[in-house]
Structures are given as C-alpha cells and as structure tokens.
C-alpha cells in the first residue's frame, strides 16, 4: 500500500476535473498538496476548501506548463518552501480536435509542451528525490486515446501514447527501488476537457466521473501497477487496437470522432 499520511503530493492541472478530485481525495488521506495550474484564483479557493476540511497543508503554485521555464519555476517554488514531493501527479492536459491543417500550430505546440514535455521534465525534477529516499510515486494521466492513432485528435492521441510508453518504461526502471511510475488511462470523463476543446464529438460513450477515475488510480497505485484503465468497458475496449491493424483502428476511430462541421480550434 502507498503511504499517503503525512506525505506531500504535487498535482498539475489541479484547478478542475480529475486534478481537483485527486487533490481532495489525497488530502482526505492525510497528504499535503501542492496545487499547480494557471488559474491561481481557482487553486486558492481549492486550497482554502481543503485546509478547512483536513489537517494538511495546501500550497498554490501558478504556472503555465506550455512555457519552457515552467518546471524550473515550479522547482524553485517547491524548494523555497522547503517541501519535498512524495507523489507527483502529471495530470494537466488539453486536446486539440479537428482537421490537422485547420488547427493553430501554436496550439498544437502548446499541447505537446503541456501533455508531453512538462510530464518528462517534472518527472526529471522530482523522481530522483524519490529514488534517493527509496519511496514515492508518479502518476501520469494518459488516456485510452493513447492506445491507437486517432484522426482529428492526432496530436492528442500521440501525446497520450507518449505518456503510456514513458510511464511503463520508467515503471520497470524504478520498481525495484520502491518507486512506482504508473500511467492512468481514463476514458470519457465528465470534466471541462471537451468543452475547452470545443470537441463534443470526441466525448464517446457514457462519461464516468472524475471521482471514479481517482478511485481507480489510487487502487492501482496501492497495487503498484504500471498502467490502469478506468472502468471495465474502457478496459475491455483498450485491448481492441492490439487485435486489428493500426490503419483499421485509425479508420474506425476517425469515423467516431470526425468533426461534424469544418472548424478551427479554440
Ligand atoms: N475528461 C476526459 O474524458 C479525459 C479522458 C482521458 C484523459 N483525460 C486527461 O485527464 C487530464 C485532466 O483533464 P480533465 O479531464 O480533468 O480536464 P479539465 O477539467 O479541462 O482539466 C485540465 C487541467 O489542466 C490544466 N491545464 C491546461 N493547460 C495548462 C497549462 N498550459 N498549464 C498548466 N495547467 C494547464 C487546467 O488548468 P488551468 O486552465 O487552470 O491552467 C486544468 O486544471 C488531462 O491530461 C486529460 O488529457 C481526460
């Protein structure tokens, strides 16, 4: 079992959705939380809510993970406060949806910075401390979208494929040093993700809740899993792409998430 009580978790994308739910669930288990995202006001509100409910510390660090200096700014803020990170949750992420050529290239670049580069650099920043202490964990929030190429979500699906591969590779590197690195793959979950991307077509199936996803994640962490998929249906469907050619998987997925009308992207 992972030792939560008295430890500290750093959660990116804690201002809403799955990240916010992680913060509340971990505080309820006695963990202090470091809340990271761009929306300082929302993070402050959450910090106040958490410290009002539980005897833990809640620290707010406002950072834009699409910026190349974000990790060094976060590390400085953590060091200045004399905190150490026992559980890193790389959760912040967003999707671009639509015909690739219609998507703003800067937006796609930012997506790679947040969904991929920040995941690797924050892990570089905090994993060595865990390995030295011989305890800790990293949860990287990937997606079932990472199991196959997806037209109209091409950058998003590729970014999540990176997160899955990266996490399982590190899981094997770190597991005999009592540090677990786990990929968490939610399916459609009721959060702001699809609204922000103006991508209702990408939300397939009945959504699960952020609380479901966090429960699955923490159960997986307690079992030191390399990867967990949230929900039985998502779990069964995640095996599908391995059984058929990639091009066919892409064709099927493309039919499901094709934009209903031509559009740019928010
Ligand atoms: N919802 C789903 O169906 C679903 C399915 C599979 C995987 N996921 C993954 O779950 C994770 C959490 O998403 P969610 O569903 O909870 O969506 P959400 O409610 O939109 O939350 C996304 C979080 O990421 C943060 N974020 C976005 N861009 C950022 C940036 N440039 N710098 C710092 N923080 C940034 C947002 O905070 P600010 O706006 O305050 O910066 C927000 O806290 C994502 O990685 C997503 O890909 C979601």
Structure description:
The chain is α/β, with parallel strands linked by helices and 266 residues long. It has one domain (8-104, 115-257): 3-Layer(aba) Sandwich (Rossmann fold), CATH 3.40.50.720. The protein is 47% helix and 14% strand. The chain has ten helices and seven strands. It has helices spanning 17-28, 40-53, 70-80, 105-133, 154-174, 193-196, 210-222, 232-237, 240-243, 246-257, and strands at residues 8-12, 32-37, 58-62, 87-90, 136-141, 179-185, 227-229. It has a seven-stranded parallel β-sheet, sandwiched between helices. Helix 4 (105-133) links the parallel strand 4 and strand 5. Helix 1 packs across helix 7, helix 3 runs parallel beside helix 4 (105-133) and helix 4 (105-133) runs parallel beside helix 5 (154-174). The radius of gyration is 18 Å and the shape is globular. It starts with 7 loop residues before the first strand and ends in a 9-residue tail after the last helix. The model is unreliable at 262-266 (pLDDT under 50). It binds NADP nicotinamide-adenine-dinucleotide phosphate. NADP nicotinamide-adenine-dinucleotide phosphate (NAP) is lined by residues 12-13, 15-19, 37-39, 64-66, 91-94, 114, 141, 143, 186, 188-189, 191-193, 196. NADP nicotinamide-adenine-dinucleotide phosphate (NAP) binds at residues 12-13, 15-19, 37-39, 64-66, 91-94, 114, 141, 143, 186, 188-189, 191-193, 196.
